[in-house]
Amino acid sequence: MPEDDPALSAAEELALARLALAEGDLPHAAGHVAAALVQAPTLPEVHETLARLAAVSGNDLELFPLGHRAFVGAVVARAHLLAAAGRPAEGLDLLAAATGHAPAADWAGVPWVTAPDLPERLDPERIARILMQLCAAVPDPVPRRLRDPLRPYLTLARNAVTVHPDHPLLLGAASALARRVGEAALAVTWAARGVRAEPSKLGEVWLGYAYRSAGRIRAALAALGRAVAHDPDDLAVYADIAGTLADHGRLDEALDWIDRALAKDPTFDCAVHTAHRLRFQRDGDVAHLVALADFVRDHPDDSHEHGDLAECCRGRPWLGQLTPAGGPVPDPLRAAAAGTTVAPTLPAPSAEAAERIRQLAHPAWPHPPAAYDAAVGLATLELADLLGLLVHPPEAPATALGRVLAGQDPSLWVRCVQVWACLGLLHHRTDEPWAGSTRRRVLLELVRDVTDGVAEAALFALVTAAWVDPAVRPDVAGVVAERLADTAALGRERRARIAVSLAHLALAAPDLDPATRDLARELITSTAGTSPRPGPLARLWQRLLAPLRRP
């Protein structure tokens, strides 16, 4: 359901619709009505014009056809016509689909949806399925800014429960919707009634989720435990119990539940994701996250999307973001003039390369494999362009991010460019076997022979390569160990500037040997007092990362 460009206001669209109606051009009238619905889905004048069109056309639904690329306004218009024609269940199906597509719009805020007598004309199981369809399409919980458009569906649920007070599936689905929009107490009431009406695994799961949202953790765990008793082979419930326990500091019990699930099926995706997340939470060993990334790569057809890997990497140095600079980043142009073995004098990158890096560079990413995937946008750039970006970084883009970086910490933008240019090098001539490849040779030279900022960017690119390709892990681990040992051997002043960043980078590397891992931890501990105090830069960092934390 792609959106059309909202170039005209609802009033302008309605004026054009009325002109088309007067001329008998019903398809054009329908198009303008659909566009007006997108602009103002609850405006009475829009619905009056739709009613006129329906009367003239004999309620012709084909004026608002459905298809693979149906316009959302046409979908909503068809929903209203179906309701007017005495087929409200089909209309609700379409409204729920529209809400899933564009949840910020008040598609259902119309009288027929909230009419108290509507559920009397609907099968309660059909209402339950519509509510479940809606719940599957929105976040859990729904952000506050998106809750108002769901209120009409909650009113529908209230009315339906009043008409069908003992229907277990309806009560459970209504509870799921209430929970998502912040009505935890109501969710508990409805789910508990559903379980009393007919005890079942699904009913207990709904009740457990409702209790959890209400902060009643003991009751939530009891309900989820009863769900397991109903169906000991539903391993998703095991993962839910484990997640609930872990969220409340009971990590050993959580891991016990996950081990029980994995004993039944070691490849069950929910259990595998939860297990790796909890084990990383327990000991901080990046090996758990690397194993999870391997599982995700080897099982692309999992039942649904999981956020465990991104959750574990979020906010962590090099796993999910650049480390804040421990000292000023050297001027890349001055560093290039001093000479390097890679390119003592490089021309400026092309305008296309500069524009691509402006669109891509950011100080945070979900996790290393996601950063690798995003950098494929640089794959067609020439090697000279990628290296030119390192020594001639373009100005920050004229975006909110660019303005913040340029105004408060320009050096951070330079480091962003360096990191993403090096990630782009990973996509250069990928047909070449790793050991003798151009990409490996260039990144190694950057690691060993250039400025601190470029060296750590190149090292991060190598670490990222190790995340996505198990075959290169021994090679990369050796490079990381060598670079960290060199840094540790330097004097205290130099060490304080880059050692912490490289130490965090080492701890993000797959298959690092224990001695190097211990050295990395020692460097982080020994230089802890040299880190900049929290202040404006810390607040800047929070602003930069905030968009990645929104559901």
How much strand content do the residues show? under 5%
The helicity comes to 55-70%
Rounded average pLDDT: 89
H/I helix tally: 29
Please tally the β strands and state the result: 0
| Separation, N- and C-terminal Cα atoms | 22 Å
Write the H/E string, N to C: HHHHHHHHHHHHHHHHHHHHHHHHHHHHH
Structural class: mainly alpha
This entry's quaternary arrangement is single chain
InterPro entries: TPR-like_helical_dom_sf, TPR_rpt
Protein name: Tetratricopeptide repeat-containing protein
Can you offer a commentary on this structure?
With 551 residues, the chain is mainly alpha-helical. It has a domain of 218 residues. Helix 1 packs antiparallel against helix 2 and helix 23 packs across helix 25. The chain starts with 9 loop residues before the first helix and ends in a 6-residue tail after the last helix. The relative contact order is 0.05. Pfam families: TPR_19 (PF14559). This is Tetratricopeptide repeat-containing protein. It comes from Micromonospora viridifaciens.
